[in-house]
Amino acid sequence: MKKIINTSKAPAPIGPYNQAVLIENTLYISGQIPLNPESGELVEGDIKKETEQSMENLKAILHEAGMTFENVVKSSIFLSDMNQFIHVNEVYGSYFNADTAPARETVEVANLPKFVNVEISMIAFKF
C-alpha cells in the first residue's frame, strides 16, 4: 500500500507531488532544494549552505518516515555547475558513514526548480 509522507519540517511541495512516498519498506523522497521550511526562503550564495539545507530537508523527511541516512540506498544529486562538486560532496559526505554510504550519481543540469544550484533526491529502505 502506498503511504504519503509529509512533514512541516521540510518545504511543502511546489507542484503536484509529495515530499515522499512509502511503499512497504521503500521510501522514495522527492528532490529537495535549499528552501528553508520555516521562512519559506531560499538559502542562496554559498553552495555548502545550500547543500546543507537540502540535506536537512531530506533528514526531516527521513525522520518523519522513521528512518535515518543509514537507511538511504540511493541518492541523486543535480548541480547547476559541476565545478561546485567538491563543495557539495564535502557537505553531502558529512551525513554518511563512508563504509555504508549509498549508491549515487551526480549530474550537471541546465536549470533546477527556482533556479537553485543543487537538488538532491533519495531512496531509502527500512531494514
TrEMBL record:
Pfam hit, one: Ribonuc_L-PSP
InterPro entries registered for this protein in UniProt: RidA, RutC-like_sf, YjgF/YER057c/UK114
Descriptive protein name: RidA family protein
CDD domains for the chain: YjgF_YER057c_UK114_family (cd00448)
Gene3D superfamilies xrefs: RutC-like (3.30.1330.40)
Coiled coil stretches, renumbered: none
Highest rank taxon of the organism: Bacteria
Family according to the record: Belongs to the RutC family.
Species assigned in the record: Maribacter cobaltidurans
